[in-house]
Design a protein that fits this description.
Radius of gyration: 24 Å
Shape: globular
Bound molecules: D-xylulose, cobalt (II) ion
Distance between the termini: 48 Å
Number of domains: 2
Order of helices and strands: EEHEHHEHHEHEEHEEHEHHEHEHHHHH
Strand content: 5-15%
CATH class of the largest domain: Alpha Beta
Number of helices: 16
Number of strands: 12
Strand order of the largest sheet: 3-4-5-6-8-10-11-12
Largest sheet: 8 strands, parallel, barrel
CATH topology of the largest domain: TIM Barrel
CATH superfamily of the largest domain: Divalent-metal-dependent TIM barrel enzymes
Structural class: alpha/beta
CATH architecture of the largest domain: Alpha-Beta Barrel
């Protein structure tokens, strides 16, 4: 097989003092942290769309990056060249998973039957490239937001015909995901939302989205899909308001429609901050509901109000993310770099350097989060904070034995309570800095 990224070596771990930009400085796949190898803690995935398709086109200008990989774009030869490029890329970076939308894999034809045949052909080719490697599919999904037919949504569309096309795409994307052994299947509600309430029947649209998801669960289980379905919350963009606003909203929706047993959440950092939350908030809300499934590892720009999909470099944020992940006992999914290089970083070498940045950032996050947990001070302070619930009174509240009357009697006896005890926030933040930057 002819090398596509000639001159780029296999990326190896060279340690934190290394200065080689084409080497890992922190991601050391076999290093054991809290009883597991880094590679097991961090099942990294390549996002087909950003890495192999996006060329830097934006609202103000054409593409600058060459993603032709030597073939004419819009052809099946090009689709196969992307597969070759993707596998060489993943192998050189020690990445074991990939994520895809249906139309990332093949050029979309006018007739859906033609697109479906192309998907069969390309998935055979991907399967052949997977053989002899340990590379697998993390998750698949259907792009139900780019084609003009989805301008009023997919599951939430006003057109029963368009709803059928959404169903057909989900069916085929599930077929391909199962064929490639995918761990999960994602619904990101790209245009499932509204521009104005004046023309929108919100109840009807949300019920129809749930109908489409139920059909997906029924079909997926029928063809042997054992993995998790995921909702990927995002509050806005492209729609003014998107129904899967944030983790709490998506969980409420899944529970209201009886979908919570089959679905978990895929939490994206940049979507969290667009919703006005921290990344770790969204992870915690998912985790406490038993629904933290997978992560889209990227970061936004706090000065901008849109989805910039940057490669993660913020070690503090990655630390807080990994703290939540470790406390959750890991993920059933993985860490998909739903991220793109900045438009001026248009070379093939930049693609590698971007993934090295992201992988090293999460490796640092993992190392730090393990230190925070092993240190134990944070857990102890949190335990102390709630310790009044270990008392007889506290236990009576937790067990359901206490009533409003019994508690009122207690309060009246006290007359005035002690203050509840300091939250010790600054002390905790100092502890985190000590652990992250101290020498011990
Ligand atoms: C869009 C986004 C998507 C999903 C998959 O903001 O994150 O790429 O991850 O459809
Ligand atoms: Co995403």
């Amino acid at each position: 097989m002819k090398e596509i990224f000639g001159g780029i070596p296999k990326i190896e771990y060279e340690g934190p003092t290394g200065k080689n930009p084409l080497a890992f400085h922190f991601y050391d796949a076999d290093r054991v942290i809290m009883g597991k190898k880094m590679s097991e803690h961090l099942p990294f995935a390549m996002a087909w769309w950003h890495n192999l398709c996006a060329n830097g086109t934006d609202m103000f200008g054409r593409g600058v990056a060459d993603k032709s990989f030597g073939k004419a774009e819009g052809t099946m030869e090009h689709a196969k060249a992307k597969v070759d490029a993707g596998f060489e890329f993943m192998e050189k970076l020690q990445i074991k998973y990939f994520c895809f939308h249906d139309v990332d894999l093949v050029p979309e034809a006018d007739d859906i039957k033609v697109t479906e045949a192309r998907l069969d052909e390309i998935s055979d080719y991907i399967l052949s490239r997977m053989k002899g490697t340990d590379i697998k599919c993390l998750w698949g999904t259907a792009n139900m937001f780019s084609n003009p037919r989805f301008c009023n949504g997919a599951g939430s569309t006003n057109s029963a015909d368009v709803f059928s096309f959404a169903a057909a795409q989900v069916k085929k994307a599930l077929d391909i995901t199962v064929k490639l052994g995918g761990r999960g299947y994602v619904f990101w509600g790209g245009r499932e939302g509204y521009e104005t309430l004046l023309n929108t029947d919100v109840k009807f649209e949300q019920e129809n989205i749930a109908r489409l998801m139920k059909m997906a669960v029924a079909y997926g289980r029928k063809i042997g899909f054992k993995g998790d379905f995921y909702i990927e919350p995002k509050p806005k963009e492209p729609m003014k308001h998107q129904y899967d606003f944030d983790a709490a909203t998506a969980i409420g929706f899944l529970k209201a429609h009886g979908l919570d047993k089959d679905f978990k959440l895929n939490i994206e950092a940049n979507h969290a901050t667009l919703a006005g939350h921290t990344f770790e908030h969204e992870l915690r809300i998912s985790a406490i509901n038993g629904m933290l499934g997978s992560i889209d590892a990227n970061q936004g720009d706090m000065l901008l109000g849109w989805d910039t999909d940057e490669f993660p470099c913020n070690v503090y944020s990655a630390t807080m993310c990994m703290y939540e992940v470790l406390k959750n006992g890991g993920l059933t999914g993985g860490f998909n770099f739903d991220a793109k290089t900045r438009r001026p970083s248009y070379t093939h070498e930049d693609m590698f350097k971007a993934y090295i940045l992201g992988m090293d950032t999460f490796a640092l996050g993992l190392i730090n989060a393990a230190k925070l947990i092993e240190d134990g001070r944070i857990d102890e302070i949190v335990r102390q904070k709630y310790s009044s619930f270990d008392s007889r009174l506290g236990k009576s509240i937790l067990s359901g034995e206490a009533t409003l009357e019994s508690l009122a009697e207690h309060a009246e006896k006290l007359g005035k309570p002690e203050l509840p005890g300091s939250g010790r926030q600054e002390e905790l933040q100092h502890i985190v800095n000590d652990i992250l930057f101290g020498r011990s």
